[in-house]
Amino acid sequence: MNKLNKILAQSKDIHYRSVDTDKAWDKFRAKANIVQEPIKNTKVIPLVPKQWLSIAAGLVLLLTATFIFWPEAPKFETTMASVESSVIKMIDGSVINLDKNSEVTYPVNYDGLDERYIVLTGNATFDVAHNPNMPFRVLKDDLLIEVLGTEFTLTGGDNGNIEVENHEGSVRASDVNDPTITIVLLKGDKVNFTPEGFVDLNYVAPVIPEPIIDHTATYSLYEIYFHLYERSNGAIDLHPNAKIDGRSTVRMDLTQNLQVIIDSLDEKTNFEYNYAQQVDMILIKKLLEK
Known about the structure:
Blueprint: H1 2-11, H2 21-32, H3 50-69, E1 76-81, E2 86-89, E3 95-98, E4 102-107, E5 116-121, E6 124-127, E7 136-140, E8 143-147, E9 151-156, E10 162-168, E11 171-175, E12 182-185, E13 190-194, E14 197-200, E15 217-220, H4 221-231, E16 236-244, E17 249-252, H5 258-268, E18 269-276, E19 281-289
């Protein structure tokens, strides 16, 4: 400590003198014969130009706005009704009634989408909110359903037939592998989608009646008598005193049974006969124009 005090006391007696650096430099130049050229006017250039600072600030703002307003990527959710049926309400108001042991994948937001795309495994009924600007499409195996607003049911599948029943509105069904195989279903329509195409389950084949052949023709009364005689193997014949006008004509169907022909003669002509029980014969007594 005594040494430190001694040093501080001695420092008070030290006198500092100022040095004129310009004079010293001139003295040094004179001894060294250095000729100093005049300093030209120079322009100070900033390390970062002002315009680049503006551009950088703009890029920062743009990146910030992009980060804030960049649309969220579309997200999809998969729901499986393993124990019991499930009701799914989509953000657009559409409702999916998912049957037990069925699975559906659907979008939970529509950012960046121009359609509502659904993938179904199993059975479900869809009640679709109307939106003509965003079609509603359901893929089930190789069957694609496209709607704008309707209610329909899909059942079956798993490499088998798929039944499509449309309850409201209209729906277009098509084969994913061959879009030319397509059908439009209206309210109440029901079809089966098979590997060979669509089968209309509403179609009922019309009952085609047997063709009615009109055998009616114009015959003379003598032709009619002769027909009765031959068809009855002689059991219908003329009475010995019979009166018959062979030239008169009448329209009849001679393909009918004998009793019908006799009844027609009784209606259309002046016809009279007797039944001879002993010989089991019909004897015509009169066959004249009425």
